[in-house]
Every structure is written in structure tokens, then in C-alpha cells.
Amino acid sequence: MAPCWNRPPAPDTPEAVIRSYQPRDHVAVRRICAATGFLGAPIDPVFEDRELFADYLTDYYLRMEPGAIWVCELDGEVRGYLLGCSRPLLHQVFQATNNLTVAIRGAYRCYTRPYKKSSRDFLRWVVVNAWREVPAAPALTPHFHINLLPEARRRIYAQALIEAFLELLHRRGRRRVYGQMITYEGRRTEALFARYGFRLLARSEITKYRRFYPGRVFLSTVVRDLSGGPALVGRSRRAGESAQRKA
Q1: Is residue 25 predicted with pLDDT exceeding 90?
Q2: How many whole angstroms separate alpha carbon 4 and alpha carbon 2?
Q3: CA distance 154 to 80
Q4: Is 21 helix (H, G, I), strand (E, B) or coil?
Q5: Which of 8, 11, 25, 169 has a CA that sits 20 to 30 A from residue 61's CA?
Q6: Each residue of 51-63: b (16+ CB within 10 Å) or e?
Q7: Can you say how many angstroms the Cα of residue 117 is from the centroid of all Cα atoms in its chain?
Q8: Amino acid 69: pLDDT
Q9: What is the DSSP string of 102-125?
Q10: What is the mean pLDDT of the chain?
């Protein structure tokens, strides 16, 4: 069974449990996906169809690799997750079919609902520009995505989620991993991930947010070598923190 950590809180930080995904978490994961899809806020102003949005971003992980998902619980409720892919070739094959299916469903719903202009613009961006704006990523390499609700956005929780996935990859003999994250011009950089041994590989501006956000928004690819082990840099320096592992 995948490991579970009880994380004692730092000052003013509630206690969290980082554990492996269970089928009962399915609805919560999809809900968090939609609730954080617009720069950490609800996706609704950009795209109104939460169901289709969650299908596009979570179907592979929930259906094909639930064993590579971890969740963050606060007060007994799931408030964040890490979606991991340890089988990149399977992901590539699955997405080729799933993306087409989602696109057909989106086109159909445009005429049967119908969608608002903002939603139609989003779908147009997905078809015309999205594939051009995704930054380069290493081929056939495991990857992960993290989403946390505002009350769970603590460095300690994100670090615990990432470590859980990296330990899985290390046990399976994987030697490299990448992640992609939203960054902001002049406000947020890749420096946090650099502290944990990741290096910036590529960055690309995401134009779909220009109508909603005053600055430039980027998607950045960060890569980490796992040959030296899965533990993140700085793990031993966390002040006042201990961990208890449960089977």
C-alpha cells in the first residue's frame, strides 16, 4: 500500500494527512480540478462546463493510473491532489484518443446548450493555439500535476505530495520526472522548484488568460534527475517537522 504521512502543523498551519488516492476521492478530485482551473480560482469565468473541463484534465490519471495519485486531507476533507503519470507511453496513447473524444463532445455541446461566448472562445483556443503554447517536455518521461485549494496552499503540503510520487517513481526504477506549472511575470518564478532540485527546461506564454489577467502568464516545464534518490533538497532542514508513516 502507498505510504501515508501525518504532517504535524507548523505555527498557524493546520495538520494535514497526505495519503494515496481511494475511489471515494473521485468526485473531490474532479471538483478541485474545476475549482482551481483558472489561475488557482474556479474555471467558470473562462469555461462554464466543469464536467468537460475535468474530463480533459483528469480522465487519464483517474482511469489509468489511480495508484499514482495522492491527496491532501485537511479536517478529514480532500483539499488538494497530485496527479502522477509513471507510464508516459500509455499516457500518450490514451490522450490521443481522449482529446479527440473531448473535442467532439465540446463541439456538440456548443450547439446544444449553447455555451457562452467566453466558453466558445476557450474551446477555440484549445483547438487553434493550445498545442502551440505547451512548452517542451522530455519525451517518454513520468510527470505530475498539483492542485491545492486556497486553504491547503502551504509549501509543506506540496512538498509532501511531490515526495510521495517521487518515491513511487524511484521504486519503479524511473530516473527522471517533470512537472508543468503556471508562473507569472514579475510575481512567481520557478525558484521554489529549483530549491528542490528541479531545473527549468522550457517556458511558454499562455494567451488564453490575456482577457482575464493584467500580466503575462506562462506555463513552465521543470525537470528533476532522480538518480540520486527521491528525497527533495532541503527535506532535513524543515524546522519543527516530523513525519509518521502508516502502512
Answers
A1: yes
A2: 7
A3: 11
A4: coil
A5: 8
A6: ebbbbbbbbbbbe
A7: 27
A8: 98
A9: HHHHHHHHHHHTTPPHHHHHHHHH
A10: 86
User: Is-contact 6 244, C-beta < 8 A?
Assistant: yes
219 to each of 31, 75, 173, how far by Cα in Å? Answer: 22, 32, 28
Set of cell numbers at residue 89? 507511453
Confidence at residue 52, expressed as pLDDT on a 0 to 100 scale? 95
- pTM of the full predicted structure? 0.86
Strands (E), the chain: 4-7, 16-20, 69-74, 77-85, 143-148, 176-184, 199-205, 217-225, 244-246
User: Is residue 198 a contact partner of residue 223, using CB atoms and an 8 Å limit?
Assistant: yes
Rounded to 10°, the helix 88-112/117-125 angle is: 150
Residue 11 has pLDDT above 60, yes or no: no
Query: Cα–chain-centroid distance for residue 153?
Result: 13
pLDDT digits (tens, 9 = 90+) for 132-182: 899 999 999 999 999 999 999 998 999 999 999 999 999 999 999 999 998
Backbone angles phi, psi at 70, to 5 degrees: -125, 150
Q: For cell 476521492, name the residue.
A: 25
Residues facing residue 220 across a β-bridge: 181, 203
The alpha-helical segments, DSSP class H, found in 66-220 are 88-112, 117-125, 131-133, 155-171, 191-195
pLDDT confidence of residue 166:
96
With beta carbons less than 8 A apart as the criterion, state whether 162 and 144 touch. yes
